[in-house]
Amino acid sequence: MARGHDTSFFVKVSSGVGAGIVLNDQLFHGAGGTAGEIGHLTLDENGPVCRCGSRGCLEAYTSTVALQSMMGLQLPGATIDDIVAAARDGNVSALRALEDAGLHLGWALASVVNLLNPALVVVGGEMARAGELLLGVGPHRAAPARARRRRLHSRGGLRARRACLARRRRTPRSGAHGAPHRLIAGLRWRAWPSRTSPPHPSPGPRRSSPPRRSTSSPLSTRGSTSSATSSRRHARSAASTSPASTSCPRPRRSGKPTGPSPPIPADLSDRRVEITGPTDPKMAINALNSGAKVWLADLEDANTPHWRNVLGGRVTLHDAVRRQLEFTSPEGKGYALKDPDHLPVIVPRPRGWHFDEEHVTADGRPVVAALLDFGLYFFHNAKEQLSRGSGAYFYLPKMESHLEARLWNDVFTHAEAALEVPTGTIRATVLIETITAAFEMDEILYELREHMAGLNAGRWDYLFSIIKNFRDAGPAFNLPDRGAVTMNAPMMKAYSDLLVRTCHRRGAFAIGGMAAFIPSRRDAEANERAFAKVREDKTREVEAGFDGSRVAHPDSVPLCAEIFGDRINQLDVLRPDVAVSAADLLAVDRTPGERTEAGLRGNVRIGILYLQSWLSGNGAAGIDNLMEDAATAEISRSRVWQWINNAATLDTGEVITRELVERIPGGGVRRTGGRRAPRRGSQAVRGVGARRGVPRLPDAAGLPRHPRRRVLSMNVLITR
């Protein structure tokens, strides 16, 4: 095949990966005779350990040994021929494994093309038996088994040189005029078909730059933070770049994104009003009777993960799916579903990847709570939902990277295959509530593909994420009072507009953030203020193009429904006017507002009262006509830490110090149930674990001596 080409490159992919380089019709050996060790080209310094001792080598991703190891649970003892045969028969896991192997090989060979500009690249060895599957052609375009031993070659190079290289390409053999081709990492491939194989249509372009791979196991929570390292570096670098020279980041995929997501299921097409709340029976019945279109059954921020809550929430969801939910309070008051045939769509939110469930272990280790939450709901309810014309829908929280979306997609695919339900039964709405995820909205939508429903603007955790990720960035990242940081602040508006534009050009829903204001049926003035705030917030979201929004209280549902009007969604609002740069997302210093003593007092107060509620078993607490949960409590404690550690000043000119925080009187802290809060501010802070000598803000607060109680403590609020 290489005859007539003075420069060519042959790569053999079997149990190892090696290459032969022909330059000027001579085999190139190199100074020590070891030229062509492409198998140990590093693709990811944080990748899996290779047999050479390095991490992230090509061989660790592409060799037959790596592929067999990857498929060990699905196809124990399978040979490469077995895996290829399974892929041709439609096995989703085998198809994905071969696709990933082809992607990594394409990334490596793109470097070869850049360096050597060979006239021909030939792939041989056992992996070449995968043929077009290795090139990423989907199962619906897979060639028949007789084409397994096709030889693959490259006629071309990067896009920038495509025109000039076209003149150098040789005419392929007879019958090859219809051969499939695909761009992998900028490399043009063609399958060399047999004379009897039919032509195949050309699929669309793939991603052209390699994403970093996650090294975390689904049963380990240690890798979720590191998986976002690349985006965090990009964001921090952008923070120091002038706005004029910074463009909106697309760190992992160049060019236009792939086409729109698959059509949204009919029962999930109207999301104008969503109500969120915990899964205790009383709150669940109130949410289901509220008239909202969707109930976000919160197993995460609004739920204290006591074991009784974990199991009780699953029972509540089981009964709600079957329209059997009812509850009688200790006082004898009964609660029941008003109209079981017309209920909001149930969308549970499992806990994040960072959280372990100590009560359930696998191989002696606690399982990830996200998998437990997802698995229990899906196993017990998916087929019941399908029988009712619905599906298994989820909200996915705390995502920091597209790699976590890819992991969720693999979980979904496996679960659908295990229960033998159709692909796409599961649909996910991802909360964009971290600054790193804001840099990867397109990538997250792409990774979930057939399981995607939309994105949600999780504003409260988003603010906490900015403080957490830029905790060492200095005073420029100091935020004002919580009440001053509205969605009209430049950085929040950029994040919101970018989310709408990203979703709608993919045909996915953009869901607005939660209105935390709680109407008061006893205080007409407070009620009027709350409704005014909700109206202002939801009007802004309608004008921005959101398809729906979330509220925290049933009384806010009619108002939100009125504002969103009769249009089921606004997917046609594509927002071509939006042009968001990295600097726009990070324009913290342009946020208007002051730091006031009242704001400081409020942060301490909310942190203490929420912690008290949390320890009492209530994950959602109404404080000062606001619905507080773990996200808003995180904002409170992290903001005080930020102000102290950056020597921020109040509007009076006074520097915020530990001593100032300890002087805050505790008279405004009242009993909310369970325990009486301490009377004095200094005692209050000490009473929840304040310690000296903690120089850094932890990613998530907790009591270190009690791993089962991931509580939001104030032990880092007032330390240097």
Structure, described:
The chain has 720 residues and is of the alpha/beta class. It has 21 helices and 21 strands. The protein has an 8-stranded parallel β-sheet. The protein has a 7-stranded mixed β-sheet with strand order 3-2-1-4-5-7-6, with helices on one face. A hairpin with a 5-residue loop joins strand 10 and strand 11 (334-336). Helix 3 (80-88) crosses helix 4. Residues 137-231, 240-258, 667-694 and 701-720 have low confidence and may be disordered.
| Average of the residue pLDDT scores | 77
Coarse morphology:
globular
Strand coverage percent: 5-15%
| Biggest β-sheet: strands ordered side by side in the sheet | 12-9-8-19-18-17-16-15
Q: How is the main sheet built? A: 8 strands, parallel
Helix content: 25-40%
- What is the radius of gyration? 28 Å
- The unreliable regions are 137-231, 240-258, 667-694, 701-720
How many DSSP H or I helices?
21
Quaternary structure annotation: single chain
Cα end-to-end separation: 68 Å
Content-based structural category = alpha/beta
Report the count of strand segments.
21
